[in-house]
Design a protein that fits this description.
- This protein is α/β, with parallel strands linked by helices.
- It contains 16 helices and 14 strands.
- The chain has a domain at 421-541.
- It has helices at 3-13, 39-51, 73-82, 95-99, 113-124, 156-172, 175-185, 192-216, 234-248, 264-276, 304-314, 338-353, 373-379, 397-416, 421-454, 467-492, and strands spanning 29-33, 55-57, 88-94, 135-141, 221-226, 255-259, 282-287, 318-319, 327-332, 358-362, 390-392, 497-500, 503-516, 526-535.
- The strands form three sheets. It has a six-stranded parallel β-sheet with strand order 2-1-3-4-5-6, sandwiched between helices. A five-stranded parallel β-sheet has the order 8-7-9-10-11, with helices on both faces. A three-stranded antiparallel β-sheet has the order 12-13-14, with helices on both faces.
- The chain is globular and about 70 Å long.
Length: 546
């Protein structure tokens, strides 16, 4: 289909699914219990919600824990119980925060299954105060490797490889897998393997309880997210058993399984608003290499095309077609064929230049989780950043797709329900700039430099850095990344304009920039800022507009 024909099609389908003028009132609230205190767990969802003028509220930051210091489930539950639930659109909650105190704590056996289930029972009783309250819950199926701490560094990857080979040997009968598993068994400290499997059994029992709650209708929608995994490992059997239980409990329509966990706040935030507003976006998917989409992405246990479909459906969207779609999602797969990538890039650039609704999920990630430089270059040419619905390229395929899709869904929803236009346009650009800085500049330039610095700091390591060494590291990241943030704002967003209700606005300033390392490591960064705009009154202020 030609670009002009596609443009005509998009114009015609822009209102093909009716939405009430304002089912979701402007300024609505949603309560979010994030996975932990990392930015990806909660801040991203807050920024995405802001696009649709949704106030996403979270428990006090200190109640969410920090790295190996767990969050406080009882404090989180008390906070929830004190909220004005009648004013809230929904609750999106991490079962792992409520049950254990967060993702990191879910990988150790300090909390019993009885304690965890009691906390989840207390959580679903929120419905006693407001029977109409919608509860969206997500839970992590434990990854293969334990948490990367200084203590676990000598053996954690041996353990991950051991449990993978144990499953492979059992399922395939390969003697080489059994032999290597036995060798690795002897390399680990006493008690490590037993504790690991005990934790998995505890988690599986808690997830069975969640599926049962979903079958009873106590939970409106449950997503079981697979944390970092591979094709073989104990997670495969655990997931199969949960799927069978969901069928027995008649919970299939309320329970969904997908890859990744860190993005699920975004995914369920999207789903909650789309369901409330009775709109299902149709998404046309364009691959940089369709054959590569049939492969497995790193850290995932199913093919990329299946993983993408899961993210779409869980977020409340559905796959579209070449003739019927609300926006296009361009997905850059790992190691695409050179010629196919060139065609992909040309089509992507052309659609953006013609003002078509386009989002980009870059899952061609380097070993350190860095987005493809070719994609960044393409998206930042010709003022394309101001025509892009959303972009993501971080950590894993599931994390990336489960960020780009919700941001696009809620931007288009915001337009349909007439959410505040100026706030919508600024919030959407804020999240785009945030992704450019975090997904590209931080991982491509600042984090590698920080890791080099760690080598020179007393007592520092990639896993954990504390004390004065952490202060020096934090100061370096703050100053270096702030430079990229200012640079990208000036180059790609400053003075650009947009229209709302017949008025032209120009982006003026980037204010209140803050950058810091939220955990005692340089693996992730917290970036905060806000954009300011003003009405254009002088023709000389005009620039390219959406």
């Amino acid at each position: 289909m030609s670009i002009l024909a596609t443009l005509a099609l998009v114009v015609s389908i822009g209102t093909h699914q009716p939405v009430s003028a304002s089912v979701s009132p402007q300024g609505a609230k949603l309560l979010l219990v994030p996975l932990d205190s990392r930015p990806a767990s909660g801040q991203f969802a807050q920024m995405i919600g802001k696009i649709a003028d949704l106030d996403v509220r979270m428990p006090p930051y200190e109640a969410l824990g920090r790295f190996t210091v767990p969050g406080d489930p009882d404090r989180v539950l008390s906070w929830l119980e004190k909220q004005p639930l009648s004013e809230c659109a929904a609750v999106v909650a991490s079962a792992d925060m409520i049950a254990y105190g967060g993702l990191i704590e879910s990988r150790v056996s300090s909390v019993t299954s009885e304690q965890a289930i009691a906390r989840l029972t207390r959580f679903v009783r929120l419905r006693d105060r407001n029977p109409n309250l919608k509860l969206y819950v997500f839970s992590a199926t434990m990854r293969l490797a334990p948490t990367a701490t200084r203590e676990a560094a000598p053996w954690r990857m041996n353990l991950a490889r051991f449990v993978e080979l144990e499953d492979k040997a059992q399922r395939t009968g390969l003697l080489t897998a059994r032999k290597e598993a036995n060798r690795l068994r002897g390399l680990m400290p006493a008690g490590v393997i037993g504790s690991y499997y005990a934790t998995r059994r505890r988690n599986a029992a808690v997830q069975r309880n969640l599926v049962t709650l979903a079958g009873q209708g106590a939970i409106d929608y449950l997503v079981v997210g697979q944390d970092d995994a591979r094709q073989y490992g104990p997670h495969v059997g655990e997931t199969r058993q949960l799927q069978q239980l969901a069928e027995r409990e008649s919970a299939q329509d309320r329970t969904y399984f997908c890859e990744g966990i860190d993005q699920l706040s975004n995914v369920l935030l999207s789903r909650s608003l789309l369901v409330q507003n009775r709109w299902t976006p149709k998404v046309r998917v364009v691959w940089s290499d369709p054959e590569r989409a049939k492969q497995f992405a790193p850290f995932e246990s199913k093919p990329i095309e299946a993983s993408l479909r899961d993210q779409l459906l869980a977020a409340g969207a559905i796959p579209g077609s070449e003739e019927d779609f609300d926006y296009s999602l361009y997905v850059n797969v790992p190691k695409p064929d050179k010629d196919k990538f060139a065609q992909f890039g040309e089509a992507l650039g052309s659609e953006l230049d013609n003002g078509l609704p386009v989002a980009v999920a870059d899952i061609n990630l380097a070993n350190d989780g860095t987005s493809d430089p070719r994609i960044f270059s393409l998206l930042t040419q010709n003022d394309r950043a101001n025509h892009l619905l959303s972009f993501a390229g971080w950590n894993t395929a599931g994390n990336t797709m489960g960020t780009a899709i919700p941001a696009s869904n809620l931007y288009l929803l915001a337009r349909k329900i007439n959410a505040d236009g100026v706030r919508r346009e600024l919030a959407q650009r804020e999240f785009l700039l945030h992704r450019f800085v975090d997904d590209y500049a931080f991982h491509k330039f600042v984090r590698p430099a920080a890791y080099e610095m760690i080598k020179t700091l007393p007592g520092a390591s990639k896993e954990e850095t504390t004390g004065e060494s952490f202060s020096a590291l934090n100061e370096f990241v703050r100053d270096d990344l702030a430079k990229y943030t200012d640079q990208y704002f000036d180059e790609f967003f400053k003075s650009k304009t947009f229209f709302v209700q017949g008025k032209e606005y120009a982006i003026r300033e980037l204010d209140d920039l803050k950058v810091w390392l939220p955990w005692p490591r340089a693996y992730e960064v917290r970036i905060e800022f806000r954009m300011e705009s003003g009405v254009v009154t002088d023709a000389r202020q005009r620039s390219t507009s959406r």
